[in-house]
TrEMBL record:
It comes from the Bacteria. It is found in: Cell envelope. It holds the Pfam family Peripla_BP_4. Belongs to the bacterial solute-binding protein 2 family. The keyword Signal applies. One of its GO terms (molecular function) is carbohydrate binding. Residues 46-293 form the Periplasmic binding protein domain. This is Periplasmic binding protein domain-containing protein. Keywords: Signal. GO terms for cellular component: cell envelope.
Length: 337
């Protein structure tokens, strides 16, 4: 993990130097033959705390690139695959110089994106990669995001470490809450977390699709807990995890004592819950970077330099727990975490 983090720091440092050099050189924009147009099409939901940080990354990149005449059109599909397909078709039809998107449905996206790439459009994947073998996957230049299969393992390891350090109880039943049925990243995260706990403690695991709507999600979680009072670990998206602190209290339990809560991603309230001992840990994929870096790299690539990273630009996972939460809180206040 330290090696991956050092690679990320090195990469960001290099990008920062390149960007500053380019932005301070007026000659580069003059060297462009035409105005560049990029599209950023994601599956995000405006108003969601996670996506607010993600969109800040996109907005900051847009502001930086505007001074060089680069136009960026940002579209959000609000967790609707069909809507994202339509947006991608519209974006490709506009024949942009570059496109960034989350590959949440590789087989359906492939016939839309591959012909555009062959025609000269540069593609970056962000947040969700194409999980197929290299010879089959959509030929994007790079993927920006977490190491998906590693995330669940490391979150599970952090929970196990906490249990050992605090001489806590060994969990018997974990509830894994999935906000998006069939979503590659969520399926992988929860699967690996469940398997990690099962391997260590023999923990029973149940995965439940709770959806994106907060009210409906909490109703589903409540119903499951009432029916299964032996659940002693809940893993859910960050915004549901904060709500779970209050929910388990209503059901006569105390988060952090007789039931463990952990989550993927973060928001200020969840960080405070970790600080208060209500939530054990969460994982950070640094979504600001996923919004910001792909657009900067598209510019570097299309401005006649062909500079671009290769493979996975890993932005996580970074585990947040009681040891490092104070530092992360400062980053969250600034809007970058």
């Amino acid at each position: 993990m330290k090696r991956n983090r050092s690679k990320l720091v090195l990469y960001i440092s290099i990008i920062t130097i390149l960007v500053l050099s380019l932005f301070l050189s007026a000659g580069i924009s003059n060297a462009q033959d035409k105005k560049l147009t990029f599209y950023y099409v994601d599956h995000g939901t405006p108003g969601n705390p996670f996506w607010a940080v993600y969109y800040k990354g996109i907005e900051d990149a847009i502001q930086w690139l505007a001074q060089f005449g680069v136009e960026v059109k940002h579209l959000s599909a609000e967790a609707d695959v069909k809507k994202q397909i339509d947006m991608l078709k519209m974006a490709v039809a506009a024949k942009p110089d570059g496109l960034v998107t989350s590959i949440i449905d590789p087989k359906t996206f492939d016939p839309i994106l591959r012909p555009a790439i062959e025609a000269g459009m540069a593609l970056m994947a962000a947040n969700v990669e194409d999980p197929r073998p290299p010879e089959e996957r959509i030929p994007y230049l790079a993927y920006y995001g977490e190491d998906t299969w590693k995330s669940g393992v490391e979150l599970g390891a952090a929970l196990i470490k906490y249990i050992k350090e605090t001489n806590g109880f060994q969990p018997k039943h974990v509830l894994l809450c999935n906000p998006m049925a069939g979503h590659y990243v969520w399926e992988a995260r929860l699967q690996m977390l469940g398997e990690t706990l099962e391997k260590e403690y023999g923990t029973k695991q149940d995965k439940v699709v709770v959806g994106e709507d907060p009210t409906k999600a909490m109703e589903i979680i409540r119903a499951f807990l009432v029916k299964n009072p032996d659940v002693d670990v809940i893993c859910a998206p960050t915004h549901f995890t904060h709500a779970n602190v209050g929910l388990v209290k209503e059901l006569g339990r105390e988060a952090g004592k007789d039931i463990y809560l952990c989550c993927f991603d973060m928001m200020p309230e969840t960080l405070q819950d970790i600080k208060d001992g209500k939530v054990v840990c969460t994982h950070d994929q640094q979504q600001y970077l996923q919004g910001f870096l792909p657009l900067i790299d598209l510019y570097l690539y299309k401005a006649k330099y062909n500079v671009h990273p290769y493979g996975i630009v890993s932005t996580g996972p970074i585990i947040i727990d009681r040891y490092n939460v104070d530092t992360v809180i400062e980053g969250a206040k600034a809007g970058y975490r």
